[in-house]
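Hi support team,

I've been running sequence recovery on a batch of backbones for a student project. Most finish fine, but this one hangs at about 90% for roughly twenty minutes before it completes. I'm not sure whether the input is malformed or the queue is just slow. I've pasted the C-alpha cells below so you can try to reproduce it. Let me know if you need the job ID as well.

Thanks,
M.K.
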C-alpha cells in the first residue's frame, strides 16, 4: 500500500544520509526501484531483471553459454572490421582482403541474429542444473512475454531442452507497482519463486 512505500522511500533517503557516517554499521539494504508504469519497455526490463535475481536467490546459477558465444562472435566481427580498416595495404591491392573481411563480418553478424531469433527468442536466462531437483536436472529455461498496453506479465518456466514441457504463470503488474511507479520487488520475487516451485513439482501447462 501507499504507506508502506512511503516508509521505503523515507528509508532510502535515510540510507543516503547514513552512507556519509563512517561510524554506522555497514548494512546492505535493497533500494526501492521506481519506473514509469506507462513505459512498457522499461517495466519489462525491470521485471526481467527481478526474475533473474529471484531465480538466482533460490540456488540456480545462470548458464552463460550463449552469452559467451555471442561475445566471441562480436569480438571476431570487430577484429575483421579492424583489419579491413587499418591493415597497411593500399587499394586496389587490398580488394581481396576487404572482400574476405566484409564476408566474415557479415557471417558473424548473421549468426548473432540467428541466435537471437531462433535460439534465445523470448528467453531471459538459462540456468545450470540444481542439485537434488529432478524436474530441473537439465537446468531451467526462463522466458517472458509482456504485450504492449497489457498488464499481464507471462512467465514461462521449462527445462533447458528442446520441446520440453512448460509451466506458465500470469503475474499482474499492478500488484507490484504503485501509481507512482514504485516497484514491490520482494513480493514479485516471491511470486517468481512460487512459479519455479510449481514447475519443479511437475505442474505443467
Amino acid at each position: 500500500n501507499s504507506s508502506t512505500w512511503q516508509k521505503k522511500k523515507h528509508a532510502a533517503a535515510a540510507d543516503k544520509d547514513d552512507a556519509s557516517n563512517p561510524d554506522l554499521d555497514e548494512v546492505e539494504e535493497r533500494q526501492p526501484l521506481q519506473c514509469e508504469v506507462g513505459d512498457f519497455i522499461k517495466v519489462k526490463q525491470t521485471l526481467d531483471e527481478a526474475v533473474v535475481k529471484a531465480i538466482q536467490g533460490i540456488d540456480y546459477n545462470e548458464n552463460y553459454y550463449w552469452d559467451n558465444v555471442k561475445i566471441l562472435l562480436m569480438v571476431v566481427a570487430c577484429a575483421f572490421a579492424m583489419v579491413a580498416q587499418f591493415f597497411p595495404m593500399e587499394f586496389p591491392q587490398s580488394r581481396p582482403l576487404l572482400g574476405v573481411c566484409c564476408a566474415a563480418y557479415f557471417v558473424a553478424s548473421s549468426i548473432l541474429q540467428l541466435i537471437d531469433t531462433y535460439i534465445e527468442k523470448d528467453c531471459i536466462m538459462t540456468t545450470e542444473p540444481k542439485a537434488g531437483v529432478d524436474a530441473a536436472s537439465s537446468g531451467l529455461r526462463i522466458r517472458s512475454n509482456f504485450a504492449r498496453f497489457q498488464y499481464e506479465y507471462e512467465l514461462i518456466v521449462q527445462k533447458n531442452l528442446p520441446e520440453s514441457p512448460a509451466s506458465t504463470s500470469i503475474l499482474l503488474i499492478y500488484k507490484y507497482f504503485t501509481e507512482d511507479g514504485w516497484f514491490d520487488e520482494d513480493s514479485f520475487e516471491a511470486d517468481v519463486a512460487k512459479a519455479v516451485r510449481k514447475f519443479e513439482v511437475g505442474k505443467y501447462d
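--
Follow-up from support: It reproduced on our side and the slowdown came from queue contention, not your input. Residues 2-6+32-61+128-200 form one domain. No action needed from you.
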